[in-house]
Structure formats: C-alpha cells, structure tokens
Amino acid sequence: MNALTEPLEYAFMQRAMAEIVIVGALCGLVGCFVVLRGLAFIGDALAHAVFPGVVLSYMAEKSILIGAFVFGAFTALGVGILARSRRVSEDSAIGVIFAAFFAVGVVLISREAGFRKDLGSLLFGNVLGVSESDVLWTGIIAVVVAGVVLAFLKEFTLVAFDATMARSAGYPVFALDLLLLLLVAATIVASLQTVGNILILALLVTPPATARLLTDRLGRMMLYSVGVAIGSGVAGLYVSYHLDTAAGATIVLVATAVFLVAFVAAPDHGLAAAWLQARRGKHHVHHYHVEDEVG
Amino acid sequence: MTGHALEVAGVAAGYGGSFELRGVTFAARGGDVVGLIGPNGSGKSTLLKAIAGVLPMRAGTIRLDGAPLRERAVGVAFVPQREDVNWDFPVTARDVVLMGRYRAAGWLRRPGREDVRRAEAALERMGLGGMGGRHISQFSGGQQQRIFLARAIVQDPAVILLDEPFTGIDAANREVLHAAIRDFAAAGMVVLMATHDLDEVTQTCSHVCCLRGRLVAFGPTETTYTPETLRATFGGQVAVFA
Predict the structure, then answer these.
(1) Which residues of A120-214 form beta strands (DSSP E)?
(2) Rounded-to-integer distance, Cα B209 and Cα B173, Å
(3) Which of A11, A166, A277, B210 supports an S-S bond with B233, CB 3.0-4.6 Å?
(4) Which of B75, B85, B91 sits opposite A218 (nearest CB)?
(5) A2: contact with B, CB 8 A cutoff
(6) Chain B residues inside the 8 Å CB shell of A221
(7) How far apart are CA B201 and CA B177, in angstroms?
(8) What stretches of B167-226 show up as alpha helix (H) in DSSP?
(9) Residues in chain B with pLDDT < 70?
C-alpha cells in the first residue's frame, strides 16, 4: 500500500496525477474519433506542427498552451483546406505542412543558446513539472472539448461511418471535419505537457484501439477507451516513480502493454479467441467425421 | 399516394476538366422505377451522386416538386454500394437505421423513443425483426443491403437512390429487394437505380435512362429498352435477346 500512497505525499505527484487523469479522459474520448475517422496521421501531424508554437511561447515566457493552440488551429485549417483541392492528395498536404512547421520549431531552437536542456521536456513532456494553473487550464480545455464532442456525437458518428449519406442528408460534412480537427488539435495542446509532441499519438490512438478490441458498441468503446487511457496514465506514473524512468514514455509503454494483452486475449476479437474458434471448428468437423464412420 | 415529381435538366457533373457526364435531362414521377444503365464509366454513379448532392453539379438544375432539390427538407435517401461501407465500424443494425432519423431529430438532440420504434418497424419490414442489436458485420451481404434499405425508409424520402443494389445478392434476398422497390414506388417515391444487371431492368424498372457520358435515351422500358438503344449505349458490346 505504501508503494501507492508514498508518491502522493509530494505535491508535484498530486498535480501530475490530476493532470494525467484529465488528459487520459480527454485523449480516450477524442481518440475514438481519431481512430474511427482514420485521422491517426493527421493527429501525428498536428502534434508535430504545434512545436514552433511551443517554442515561441517558451521564448516569450508565456504559457505554451497559447502558442501551441494557435499553430494547431492553423494546421487543422490548412490541412482541411489543402486536402479539398484535388491537385494535392490529403496525405501529401499533411506531410508538407507538418514537416515544415516542425522544422520552423527546430530552426527557432537552434538560435537559442540556453534552450537545449529544455528541448527534451518540450518534445517528450514533463508531467512532473506541471503547475496548478497548468492543471486548471488542462481541465478547462478538457471540459470544453468533451462538451463539444458529446454535443455533436451523432453527427461525428454519422460522418465517420458514412460521409456520403451525411452529405446527401444535407449535413455540412466539411465544417464537421474541420471542427473535429480543431478538437483534436485542442486535445493535443492540452496533453503536450504530459507526454510531449512525439508520444502524444500513442495516447490518442492506443486506448481507443484497445477498446475497439473489447466491444462492438460505440458507447462502450468510448467508455473503455477513457478507462484504458486513465488507467495507463495512473499506472504509468507510479511505475515511472518507482523505477525512476521518464513519465511520458512509461505511460505510453503501459498503454501499449494493455493493448497487446487485449490483442491476444480479447473475448471476441483477440488472437486467442480466433485460435480457439478455429480449433473448435476443426474439432467439430472431426467429431462428425468420427460419427459418420461409426454410423 | 402523394406522387412526387423529379425534374433533371441539363445536368453536367464529374471530376476534372472534361465532365464525366453532361446534358442529362429527364423527368420522373412518384411511382416510377428508373433504371440507370450504361457501360463502366458512363456516369451512372456520377448522376446518382449529383442527385444525392454528394458531387457538385457543373451545370443544370434538379428540381423536386417544382423547387430546387437542395432547398427541400424532405429529400433524397441514398443507398450506397456495399463495398463503400466500413463494416468494422462499431455500430449495430439498429444504430445504422437510426442514422436515417438524425436529420429529423435535429442538432443537439438524440433520436427519441418514436424514432427507435420506427427503426425497429423498418427492420421488421425488411425481414430483420429482432436482430437490431447485432453488430453490422454479423449479417450476410443481402441482409446488410436490407439494413441500408431500412435506413432509407425511415428518412421518409421523396426520391430513393440505389447504387448497384443487386451486386452479390442471392435469389432470396433479390426477392426481398424487388418487393421493397415495389413498396417504395407504390408509396409515391421516385426510385432511381444504377445497375449493370440488364435482366433486372426488364423485371423491375418502369423506365430506363441510358447513359454514355451523356444521355443516350430515356423513356418507358417497353419502348426504350430496344436493341437499337442498347447498341447506342454500349457500343455493340452486348448481345441482346429481346
């Protein structure tokens, strides 16, 4: 028990726990639509593209949330609009924008002498260093984003499942896609301090992918995804405390381990279930065969 | 019987510089079942998607009961090809049919009990009563087609668009589909169906619309579905035993 309570005696661990619970819930929820709408690559691009915003905020000694959000919103709109033109494929549009933005961030950094020591915490997050106001702002963003996702739940579901029908029913599909991208951008920005630019994709994609293995229902998938994300976050933070490893990366590895367990052992979609079904099928055939011979 | 009127006038649609489809003009009334036929790339799907509002039109107008189609609340139900649907998506048959009620429910509102009842009734009518709680991947191809027909029904459309509905369908499901199409027509809807199955045209369609990048011919099946029009449409690739 001591192993669980001891870390919480430190104020920085309490803040880190609060932060990871909020971020886990948010990523688990929004990530479902990243997975279902096939936005993993865009999500990765957004995460990289907000980097110069982070660097600029850091230089101006402002909260990194501000700069990151401005660049995230720009990228979301830019990708959405570029992908509409038929001369540039969506993949290429994303590739062009995110590499360019990330490069801007690196160039800005290279001009700053005393900056290198903080590069790691910007790229990989520093959940142990979050302040009370960071936690507060993450919470506010999370409430707003989750509220919008739930308000437009049926529209996002319809567009992800059948964009053609959504369009023929008169829904503004392009506007809904842009809104979703903006929500993904906001989620990434809110999560940056936890796992950083490079690893954020794991929190957005791994928990919903795990949840999808466990259920065929969207409602339950969202619930399980939030649960897996929060659980991995809290467990990862404890592990990183006791083993003295980098928090963000440890959280990602715990989530990955949960995914692998589900991949093998999930009741209907897991490897083991598939193997058992195949084996039972074979057994079945064999059984009849024997009966035939007897009869 | 309400009897809607669909007028397609000078429609051009498609991608790129040279339009895939141009100069399509015809009129259909509620109760008509119009078969869209033509070789691959002739614009069957393009025309369906233009009417559905999925593809922008380059020219022309589409009017329903005298008003531009896009301005009407009651509109068009599109039944996609089976290959165009993501069957891994975590939804049940009932969820899919309920999507047909989203528009009527409005923004920020969930479909209500009445919508659920209508969804169940539509599934029942398609011979899938009591199966609404199953995941969509657990149905056969023909049953999946019927789920999407049920979704079209609950939209209360004036025009129903079917994209290659008979592809990969066995005889029993074919019968259900025929009955459903007859029901739609009897209820006063305009049914438009793209198909490469020419036997279905003579069996199911009251009218044919022959396309080959442009309108080759349009009219009642018995007078328009002739060896001459088919040769003009398919360029002599089809042997016709009429």
Answers:
(1) none
(2) 25
(3) B210
(4) B91
(5) no
(6) 90
(7) 13
(8) 171-186, 198-204, 221-224
(9) 1-2, 16-19, 71-74, 236-242
Q: What is the pLDDT of residues B82-103, one digit of tens each?
A: 888 888 999 999 999 999 999 8
DSSP state of B24: E
Residue A22 vs residues A227, B24, B126: alpha-carbon distances, Å: 11, 56, 45
Alpha carbon A169 to chain centroid distance? 30
pLDDT of A221-270, one tens digit each? 999 999 999 999 999 999 999 999 989 899 999 999 999 999 998 887 88
Sheet-wide strand order for B21-29: B21-29, B5-13, B57-64, B67-68
Domain annotation for chain A: domains and CATH numbers:
2-294 (1.10.3470.10)
A149 interaction partners in chain B (CB closer than 8 Å): none
CA distance between the termini of chain A: 63
Other CB atoms closer than 10 Å to residue A257's CB: what's the count? Answer: 14
**Cα nearest neighbour of A158 on chain B:** B99
pLDDT confidence of residue B178: 87
Longest Cα–Cα distance in chain A: 87
| pLDDT tens-digit series, residues A60-84 | 877 777 888 888 888 888 877 776 7
Half-sphere exposure of A179 (CA within 13 A, CB side): 18
- Residue B107 corresponds to which amino acid? W
DSSP state of B214: B
3-state secondary structure of B218: strand
Task: Please state the φ and ψ torsions of residue B189, each to the nearest 5 degrees.
Answer: -85, 155
- Looking at residue B84, what DSSP letter applies? G
Using only C-alpha atoms, chain A has a radius of gyration, in whole angstroms, of 22
For the purposes of burial, counting CB atoms within 10 Å of the CB of B81, is it exposed (0-12), middle (13-18) or buried (19 or more)? middle
pLDDT digit string, tens, across residues A98-144: 888 888 888 888 777 666 656 777 778 888 888 898 899 999 999 99
In total, chain B counts a number of residues equal to 242
* Tokens standing for residue A147: 């509220």
User: A87 at the B interface (CB within 8 A)?
Assistant: no
A171 to B86: CB separation less than 8 angstroms, yes or no? no
Q: How far is CA A90 from CA A99, A160, A293, in A?
A: 14, 16, 61
Portion 10-29 of A in contact with B at CB < 8 A:
none
Q: Residue A20 pLDDT more than 90?
A: yes
Rounded to a whole number of angstroms, the distance from the CA of A185 to the nearest CA of chain B is: 23
Token readout for A132 is 């009370």
Contact by Cβ (8 Å): A199, A124? yes
CB spacing of A161 vs B75 below 8 angstroms: no
Across-strand partners of B209?
B36, B218
How many whole angstroms separate alpha carbon B65 and alpha carbon B6? 6
Give A 148-167 residues with CB within 8 A of chain B. Answer: 151-152, 154-155, 157-158, 160-162, 164-165, 167
